[in-house]
Amino acid sequence: MLNNKECYLKTGDKLEVINNNVYINGTKFNLLGSGVDGNIYKYEDKAIKLYHDDYQIKGHLNIEQIEILCSIITKNIILPKERLGSNLNNFGYVMNYIDLDTKKDILLEDIYKLTKEIKTLEEELILIGKNHFLLDDFKVENFVFNGNLYLLDPDSFIFDKKVDFSKKNLELFVWYFIRDIIF
Q1: pTM score > 0.90 for this model?
Q2: Cα dihedral 18, 20, 24, 25 in deg (nearest 10)
Q3: b/e per residue 131-161 (b: at least 16 CB within 10 A)
Q4: Which residues pair with 133 in a beta bridge?
Q5: Any residues with CB less than 8 A from the CB of 146 and at least 6 apart, and which?
Q6: pLDDT tens per residue, the chain (183 residues)?
C-alpha cells in the first residue's frame, strides 16, 4: 500500500498518495486498475501509475533510466512521459491515457490497417532498442486497440547501456504477438 507520498507534476499540480488513494490538488482520483507492480489512476488525458511499496524493493528502472525512457518519442508504445518522485526515489510515472478495447477488435479491422499498426510498433521497438531498452513483458493484456494498436506497460523494460536490443525486441514482439493476439 502506498502511503504519505507527494510530488508536483510538471503542470505544477500537487499529487499526494494517502492510504493508497491519489489526490491531485485535493481532488481524489479513482483507481482504474491494479497489477503486480502498481496501481493505475486516470487524470485528465493522462494515466498515472504508482508502484506498490513492495515493488520498489524488487527493483525497477532507476531515475536516470526513466528520464531516458521519458525522452523517447513514440506514438503506439505508451512510454512514461514524466517520472513521479523526489530526486532520491521514484514511485511512479505519468503516461498518456488510452481507452481500452478488447483484442478481438483488432481482428475486426481490415488487414491493411492492422499491418500498418504492426509496422509502427516494430519501428518504435527498434527505436527503443537503439536506446538500450529491452521490453520484458509482452502479453495480450498489454495490447489495446481503439482504432490504433497500442502497447502498454512501459515499466517492464530492462536497460543495458552496452546493448542495442533492436533485434531482440522485434523477436519477442513477433513471438508474443502471434501467440497471444492471433491465436
Answers
A1: no
A2: -20
A3: bbbbbebbeeebbbbeeebbbbbbbbbebee
A4: 159
A5: 98, 99, 100, 101, 105
A6: 456 778 888 888 888 888 778 889 999 888 888 877 788 888 888 888 887 765 553 446 777 888 888 899 998 888 888 888 766 566 788 888 887 655 555 555 567 777 888 889 889 989 999 999 888 767 777 777 777 788 877 667 788 888 888 888 888 877 776 676 565
d(CA 93, CA 78): 12
Q: Phi and psi of 3, rounded to 5°?
A: -140, 145
Place of cell 521497438: 125
